[in-house]
């Protein structure tokens, strides 16, 4: 709602079946919509980030939509708190290198940050110089 009122921004929401636990839009309609657009910047979230498995989430239908969004976007930004680093979920979304930037919090494990940045993805959090 805060973004929708800003001048110069066209905000689009995906339809489809809305999952009760995550409120994510998934399913055939969602995939069709993602396939019809070219996105400037995609903001996504995931359940897990590991150097070996990349980005993962708990639901395979959500993983498929997130993967499609990353592929359709010129730039992808991952919003993930420190608890997502080092965690692996069931559905694979994308390799870490598919994301341009990760925004997290200051409690993130610095060893995992180094591994992520080694894959070519920037990691930022409040207070980082």
From TrEMBL:
<dbReference type="InterPro" id="IPR014036">
    <property type="entry name" value="DeoR-like_C"/>
</dbReference>
<dbReference type="Pfam" id="PF00455">
    <property type="entry name" value="DeoRC"/>
</dbReference>
<protein>
    <recommendedName>
        <fullName>DeoR-like transcriptional repressor C-terminal sensor domain-containing protein</fullName>
    </recommendedName>
</protein>
<dbReference type="InterPro" id="IPR050313">
    <property type="entry name" value="Carb_Metab_HTH_regulators"/>
</dbReference>
<feature type="domain" description="DeoR-like transcriptional repressor C-terminal sensor">
    <location>
        <begin position="3"/>
        <end position="105"/>
    </location>
</feature>
<keyword id="KW-0678">Repressor</keyword>
<dbReference type="InterPro" id="IPR037171">
    <property type="entry name" value="NagB/RpiA_transferase-like"/>
</dbReference>
């Amino acid at each position: 709602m805060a973004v929708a009122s800003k001048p110069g921004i066209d905000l689009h929401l995906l339809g489809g079946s809305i999952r009760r636990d995550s409120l994510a839009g998934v399913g055939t309609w969602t995939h069709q919509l993602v396939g019809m657009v070219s996105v400037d910047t995609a903001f996504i979230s995931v359940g897990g980030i590991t150097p070996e498995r990349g980005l993962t989430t708990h639901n395979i239908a959500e993983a498929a939509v997130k993967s499609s969004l990353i592929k359709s976007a010129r730039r992808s930004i991952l919003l993930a708190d420190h608890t997502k680093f080092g965690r692996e979920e069931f559905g694979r979304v994308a390799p870490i290198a598919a994301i341009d930037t990760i925004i997290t919090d200051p409690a993130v494990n610095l060893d995992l940050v180094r591994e992520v940045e080694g894959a070519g993805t920037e990691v930022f959090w409040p207070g980082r110089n």
